[in-house]
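Open question from group meeting: does this chain pack into something compact, or does most of it stay loose? Before anyone orders reagents, we agreed to write out a predicted structure and look at it together. Recording both the input and the output here so the notebook holds the full record.
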Amino acid sequence: MVRMIAAGLVLIGVLVIVHELGHYLVARFFGVGAPVFSIGMGPRIFGFRHKGTDFRISMLPVGGYVQLAGADPFGEEDADANVPDDENFAKKPLYQRFLIIFAGPAVNLVLPFVLFSLLYMVGNPEPSSRIATVYPDSPAAEWGMRSGDRIVAVNGEPVEVWFEVQESLEDTEGEPGVLTLERDGTSFDVAIPEGALLATVEGEPDLVSLGITRSVRLPMVSITDPQGPAAQAGMQTGDGIGKVDGEDMVSWEGLISALSAPGAHELEVVRPSDDGQEAEKHAITLQGGSADPMSRTTPWGFGPSALVVQSVADGSAAQAAGLQSGDELVSINGVELFAYEHLLHTMKRSYDPATHRIAPVEVGYLRDGERHMVSLTPALEVVSREVYPRPVMGVRLSGGQTYPSSDEAVHRYGIFQAISRGTTTSVGIIRDTGQMLVNMVTAESSVRESVGGPVAIFRVAAYQAERGIFKFLETIAVLSVSLGIINLLPVPALDGGQILFYAVEGLRGRPLSIELRERIQMLGVMMLVVFMLLITADDISDAIAGRF
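Structure tokens returned:
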């Protein structure tokens, strides 16, 4: 709890300081007085005075403010203030008042460009170029690539991290290319034939189309032989293997390796609960034997990555096509499926972003051991916690999950490369944050799923701080964008609301009456207070339910 509070205070403090510093510096540039620069709200705890400004820490850690000479906390004229005209914010030209208010959110939007550029120059730990998974029956498997291989060059250009692999392959998309891999200290080349590498819907090289990914297949099983040793021992489709002989299992390949050792093996089988309660754990014993991690089945009568349907959404394409709970998805348009990520990438190909049309897909599934095919047309939806819409058939799955490999490398970029990548990363975050706001306005995603309050911010801050200073700084950069964009919204009591007043003043040639502006500001404050209370209540509810 102490770490969470400390991390949250540091994160919020940095964001507030950066934001208010934008207001402060531009105000001083134009000669406007600034009696108070406060981190936090409410009564003053401690601080110091410098050049006529009281820099203070206040009691409530919910934002901060710069009090501008001649103005109230919302930037409106304070008729009772006794301030020389040359220092009075309210007496300054319209463009100067606009720039002073705009500077706060502007600096928040600039911060990620600076932070990410510095991180890439210093060396930010990121996913290495090691291949975590090669999917069976994929082009990569046919070319002899294996899980654990490391890509060390693309078309002769050295690479160290996954981003460099993708970046280098952008020039290879649709054309022949060469990957240089390293395995057990030996390097070898793999030729990518023309047309083998496809692009994602977003236009990036889709390495999954080759059958390789940096994500690890979890040790989830599908029973392939009802009379096999696993089924006879009580194992079921959808079970996960938590431990083998007391050792944690984190990947399918690791599971096969552990079971390949001779002798009897004690397995901890984890079975998800249908009612969402704590998973069941069972102990079984299997005899060791030789198995190929690239095979659909094993000597024990189970295979990898069961994409088992837990439930089917009412009114969905899957329900209309007749899919049921307990069915196991095994192919999409003839492409054999081995993990959720594989399914996701294959499904995305049914959507054409140029025409905004979704093509029907042929879904292969197993029911009671028999294989069936059905055609359905997915719906285009924004999924919870995501930004952009994707084709959705309407099923909830268990098994077959993947997660990014923890194998990381530190790559230091030159100043120009760092600035270029920092800019690309920052623009992407700004674009995605803007799209998320659009989704909320158009009701494609709910506010509850997209917005977090103070409790959520503190929890995220603590989690990222535990992962290291680089992840913590990345979080600051991402939240800085959100703070900047939100403050530019034309909502009374936010900077965007004040900017809107200035726009009206510019069009009318005179400001709205101070009484009307004060009423609008107070309405905005009430709306923000109610909104903050609601999302904070949601945060607390999520925390109690363990949904973070």
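Observations to bring back to the group:
Residues 133-213 form a domain with the Pdz3 Domain fold (CATH 2.30.42.10).
The chain has a mean pLDDT of 85.
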